[in-house]
Specification:
single chain; mainly beta; Jelly Rolls; 2 domains; 6-stranded antiparallel β-sheet; about 15% helix; about 45% strand; elongated
Length: about 200
C-alpha cells in the first residue's frame, strides 16, 4: 500500500516545492541548493536570480563558455524522486522548444517532456517527468530550451519533486495482531486483579 501511495505526490503528501522567492534579484551564483536539490548551469557559467514571466523570483543560467549562448540548467536531487515538475518561461520571447529530461544515478534517460513555444510567448509553462513504477528513480534533471536565438534563454520557477519514500508508517498485519493480543492479555490480568 505504501508503494502505491508513495508514487503519487498528491496522495502521499511527499511533494517538496522550491520557488526561489528567497533569492535577491539580481544576484549571481555558481550553484543554488534548497531542500535537498542543487541547481547549476550545465557545462559552465553561473545561475542568476531573475523575475519570471509570472513576476516571481526564479533562476536562469548566465552566458557560459560561449559568450553568445545560455547553457542548460541542471537540478541534482539528493534523495531521488518519482516525479519532477517545473515551470519554464522564455525570457527573450523567441520561438524555441522548452524541455525537461530526467536521468537515473547511472545517467540513463528515464523520461522527457518538451513544449514548443511561439515568438512572443512569455508565459510560464509546467513540464513534468516521472520515473518508472518501482524505480529506478530520478537522480537529476536537465532543463532549458533548444532552437532559440541565443541558446537556453529561459527562467525556471516552482520546482517540485516527489520523494519515493513512504511518508507515513503503515503497520503490518502481524503488528496489529500482536497489539490486540497484548491489549487482551492486559484486560485479562486486570480482571483477575493481578495488575
Amino acid at each position: 500500500m505504501c508503494v502505491l501511495l508513495g508514487t503519487w505526490c498528491g496522495v502521499a503528501g511527499a511533494a517538496v516545492t522550491i520557488n526561489f522567492n528567497g533569492l535577491s534579484i539580481p544576484s549571481q551564483f555558481p550553484t543554488y541548493t534548497n531542500s535537498g536539490v542543487t541547481f547549476s548551469a550545465v557545462g559552465g557559467g553561473d545561475l542568476q536570480a531573475v523575475l519570471t514571466p509570472n513576476t516571481t523570483a526564479g533562476i536562469t543560467s548566465t552566458l557560459g563558455i560561449d559568450p553568445a549562448v545560455f547553457p542548460f540548467m541542471q537540478a541534482v536531487i539528493a534523495s531521488e524522486a518519482t516525479h519532477v515538475y517545473i515551470g519554464l518561461g522564455d525570457f527573450d520571447t523567441d520561438a524555441e522548444t522548452l524541455f525537461l529530461n530526467a536521468f537515473d544515478a547511472s545517467d540513463n534517460p528515464l523520461d522527457s517532456d518538451d513544449l514548443p513555444t511561439d515568438t512572443g510567448d512569455a508565459s510560464l509553462h509546467t513540464l513534468s517527468v516521472s520515473a518508472p513504477l518501482g524505480g529506478p528513480y530520478i537522480s537529476y534533471v536537465i532543463f532549458g530550451a533548444t532552437g532559440g536565438l541565443d541558446g537556453s534563454s529561459v527562467s525556471a520557477d516552482e520546482f517540485v519533486y516527489c520523494s519515493p519514500t513512504c511518508p507515513s508508517v503503515i503497520p503490518a498485519p502481524g503488528a496489529i495482531l500482536l497489539g490486540a493480543i497484548g491489549v487482551g492479555l492486559v484486560g485479562h490480568l486486570r480482571r483477575r486483579r493481578t495488575l
